[in-house]
Amino acid sequence: MRLNIHLTAALSLPAPTPTTLMVEAADLGAAQRLEESRLYVTPFRVAEPFRDFYHNPCRRLLMPAGDVRLEYVATVSLPGARPAGGEAYEADALHLPTETLLYTLPSRYCQSDLLVAMAADLFGGVRPGFARVQAVCDWINAHVTYQYGASDTGTSAYDTAAQRVGVCRDFAHLGIALCRALNVPARYVSGYCLGLVPPDFHAYFQAWVNGRWADFDATSALPRPALVRVAVGRDAADCAWATFYGYGETRWLSAEVTEARDDAEGDTET
Amino acid sequence: MRLNIHLTAALSLPAPTPTTLMVEAADLGAAQRLEESRLYVTPFRVAEPFRDFYHNPCRRLLMPAGDVRLEYVATVSLPGARPAGGEAYEADALHLPTETLLYTLPSRYCQSDLLVAMAADLFGGVRPGFARVQAVCDWINAHVTYQYGASDTGTSAYDTAAQRVGVCRDFAHLGIALCRALNVPARYVSGYCLGLVPPDFHAYFQAWVNGRWADFDATSALPRPALVRVAVGRDAADCAWATFYGYGETRWLSAEVTEARDDAEGDTET
Amino acid sequence: MRLNIHLTAALSLPAPTPTTLMVEAADLGAAQRLEESRLYVTPFRVAEPFRDFYHNPCRRLLMPAGDVRLEYVATVSLPGARPAGGEAYEADALHLPTETLLYTLPSRYCQSDLLVAMAADLFGGVRPGFARVQAVCDWINAHVTYQYGASDTGTSAYDTAAQRVGVCRDFAHLGIALCRALNVPARYVSGYCLGLVPPDFHAYFQAWVNGRWADFDATSALPRPALVRVAVGRDAADCAWATFYGYGETRWLSAEVTEARDDAEGDTET
Amino acid sequence: MRLNIHLTAALSLPAPTPTTLMVEAADLGAAQRLEESRLYVTPFRVAEPFRDFYHNPCRRLLMPAGDVRLEYVATVSLPGARPAGGEAYEADALHLPTETLLYTLPSRYCQSDLLVAMAADLFGGVRPGFARVQAVCDWINAHVTYQYGASDTGTSAYDTAAQRVGVCRDFAHLGIALCRALNVPARYVSGYCLGLVPPDFHAYFQAWVNGRWADFDATSALPRPALVRVAVGRDAADCAWATFYGYGETRWLSAEVTEARDDAEGDTET
Hints:
Four copies of one chain form a homotetramer. Chain A is of the alpha+beta class. Chain A is built from four helices and 14 strands. Chain A has helices at about 115-125, 130-145, 155-165, 170-180; strands spanning about 1-15, 15-20, 35-40, 50, 55-65, 65-75, 145, 165, 185-195, 200-210, 210-215, 225-235, 240-245, 250-260. Chain A has a four-stranded antiparallel β-sheet, with no helix packed on it. In chain A, strands 4-5-2-13 form a four-stranded antiparallel β-sheet, with no helix packed on it. In chain A, helix 2 crosses helix 4 and helix 3 (about 155-165) packs across helix 4 (about 170-180). The interface between A and D is medium-sized, with 33 and 33 residues.
């Protein structure tokens, strides 16, 4: 499947402001191939590319004062079929790759240390592995209400565990926190999603099961038709699409994702 | 049933400290008759009796510096049988007695405003009335683990909703908060309980159902053999057995409750 | 001084909803005389008056589904001069009137138990009495930024102590919590205020100093020209202008307060 | 200066438990030379060494059930004099090395996003650079009380900002959060400290000023005579000396640090 991504955003800044952007689709080889990827800042500024701690593609620049327009255009090619679940197993903590251990620890929005009893109560009896993480997602999907405006940037998994209302970011945080409380490495993914209404950034998570990072999306009862990863991190604090070192306001934002129709190439993957 | 209550406590204070005590069993007429009730402070101090906002029996005094010993001895007579549930009904908010409305509002440890979605998710489909409050208690009893030391005086219903571990105070707070989130008036009760191990103060709650305040105790899967009410309030903040206007330390405390054996009176209620 | 109050509000309700209203100016004798006070609900409904726990004037009614318009018109007469401070003293906790003790305890939005060290650090060295409470207000006014939208109905004094941004409700909560942490009884007041822009409800607080409840308003560096009390309580949870037992949305609200010009009466109090 | 470190700890585990240990002094070249470093687990187990995300020296092993004794013995050589402050400057966010940007983001225990107004209020007028971070430490040292037992493993910088009481871990978290709120990269350091009573692990922090990571210790009004770094991370969640994937209890722990007296070598660095 090939996807076109078209992000447009209007920002307003009271003063020139150092800013980090994380809006570019990651280039992950066969798993997510970046055919085209262009970022425009108007008025024109060079946005210096760099990789953060997690090797996510980032840019930084001095945003000018006043109105700024961002546009990001990309074409991404995803494999036609997701890898099957394979034999379900889950490494115990002793045999996890050491680079996954960071993702077992609590973080800003995923206070897994406080949700150990809840996770044990709900999922302690479920057999470890892919199905258990799916059970976490199913529980969240059934018991947390999706509602704009009921949460904000201060809302954490701890809040969502009690308040049971939020948006994709909150669903992901709760999923991550419950996985970590079960000693399953889990990390946050920001990205693009085909079929979202309204067209916006999306957030989901990955858990380390069956020896790989597998995608999970607690916001949706059904598997998503296509997810495009931008950044991974411990939670939303690490994956903000824009981090202003100062103040910046997002006036509006649209992240359209459409399936690329390219007859010439005879795309048969749909 | 007649009960003897014997409270002994050792306090230590660095300086003379104004203190409010709420340790005396309430005299509630037939529902809880106070046959005897004596409070001793050593070194001797007069503890002035008064009624607080909720008409609970309180005392206040200037606690002397150093070691202070408290002793409270009471005999309480309770009706042999609890009033039956009667026809189950629950007043809607419009027809609640106005004096119960205070107990529909959130309080320090019972943030019912934040648990509306959780209450609706868990109990929205249960028929209102006594049975629904009992369902709240049953859920708490099944999903919250009783454990000393896992909570402290800062722990609230919001915390317990997520952390799912605590003591009787926390069980009561969560029960109250969930009831209020369902628009059922609920209040905290501090008191004494027959059969507690170790012998300590107890906390439970009352909900307004079937036109009266009915006792509920989420800490126990079975009905308690006997509960003796000391104080009611919106939550533990209103019912502390000792409030120090300054600093005071409780070195130890024992609250023994035993069934009075009074052959002469031919007590046949057991 | 005589004031005209004109409240208009537009509500929208998805279903008939039991509702409590607290919008009427209190009649406090010479301290605040209610000359006229009329509440209209459109479509017409009878709103039954009652007194709550704190003896505040309340109304309750079954709000009809759909659009509802509220109008409240009042004329209030206030004494021309506020009582002078008098000799500054502050009762210690032992000699406080028992009916003020409730207001030394923590509540939903005023977690004084958690701010004891902060209060002692900032105000422990200030001589007790009126001036110390004023010092609390001055500190809040200097260190908390007034900003719409930076706080919400979940924000508490604990949050404001750290976040240092909010609206009048938050300023009042922090003032109350710091007073209680100093063992000074303090309570929340909702009401009307002359000169507010935009014209809205106001919140301030009262502390028990010099043997009476004195008004304090941490939101303003200067004394307010006129404050009209509607309700008192432990915090905003007790004084909400509308409590919906269900769901209700406020589309807009205006609370205009103007000085009454009544030449005929020869009002010489200005 | 040469230091001997002697850590002894007694653990108790109900079952064999995968465990990560971070107790070994880091080998940082001239800045902190590791002359000797030996870790013993009794009963004997091999503790596999690895480097975590931050390149901290870690070990992991399957802790056996029952009583386990840990002993760590090290000799560390530190430069006789700390590098002088040099010309004070602080990079703006645009010119920070990209590898420091992670440490400008909020984390589990350092919610810098919530303390922006507090940091601006207290330190907005202080000239950026080393002296401003020192001003942060001085403020914390003056306004937060050091007290065992007043905080726990759930306590965060947000709590300490309001509660103003805690231990070295809390002091470090608040320092880090305030620095990040000022856009100064700051990170947590766990380690050993000469002269602590009782001998325990220590926590302090580093801020990126003058183009390097500089040590700061808000717990102490005076500079520490010697700090030995074990691990760095975003906060205490990343630097726990023992992380149990299951349950483990620390029965007691002692971390003695003494100055090495080695006449033969003619140590003249004191």
